[in-house]
Specification:
The chain is of the alpha/beta class. Helices cover 38% and strands 14% of the residues. It has 10 helices and 7 strands. The longest helix has 18 residues, at 202-219.
Amino acid sequence: MTLTQGWVAGVDGCRAGWVVVLLETSTGASRLLGCTTFSEVLALPEQPKVIAVDVPIGLLDRGEPGGRACDREARAILGRQGVRVFSSPTVPALEAYILGGDHVTVSDANRASSGAGIGLSRQAFCIMNKISEVDAEMTPQLQEVVYEIHPEVSFRRANEESPLAEPKRGASGRARRAAIVEELGFPTDRFLSRPRPLDSKPDDILDAAIACWTASLIQNQSASSIPKSPPLSSRGLTMAIWH
C-alpha cells in the first residue's frame, strides 16, 4: 500500500471493547485483534505511529445546530447518506453521562448548554461510553498519533469520492464494503471468519479496516481533514474528521 515503515491502526468500537486492524505499511502485513479498553489500544506492542478511531474527538462546550463543523461538513459531502453522521455530544452532556445520567438527563444537559436547545440523539448516547473512554485519554500531544475518522467518509474516498448507498449492516452493504477493503489489501475472508475478536460484528471489522487504510494515508501525509482548517475545542483538541 505504501513504502512508509511502521505500524498504523484502525479502531472501531464494538459491544465488548474495541476492534483493531493493524497494518505494517512497508510490507502490507495486517493483523486483527480486540482490546477491551482504549488504554490497551494506546499500549499496543506494535506502537502504531497513527491510530485512526471512529469516535468524536474534541467536543463543543455549547450545542450548535448540526453539531461541530466537521460533523456538518461530513454530512454535506455524504449527501443523502449524511444521516449516518450524528451530531457529537457537548462537554456538559458528557459530564452528565459520567455522573450516571440516562439518555433523558444527558440530552437535557446537551439542550441546556446553549440557547439553541439541541438535545442528543439515541445513537450518540449509545456510544457515550466510547466517547468518554477516548476523551479521558486525549491531549493535544496525543493527537499527533490519534485521529478521528468516520467510516462512511473514508469509504467514500476509497470509492472514488462516491458515498456508498447500501446500509453497512445489510448483506449487500457488507459485501460492497468487504470488496473495497479487500481491494485495499486487507484479507477479509480471514478477518470476517469466526471466531472474531470480542465476538465483534462484520461491520465493526470492516469499519476498523477502512479506518486503518485512512491511518496509512495520514501516515503518508496524503489524508485530508474536514474542515480544512479545523477549530480547537476549549481543551485545545483539534475537531476534525480525517479521510
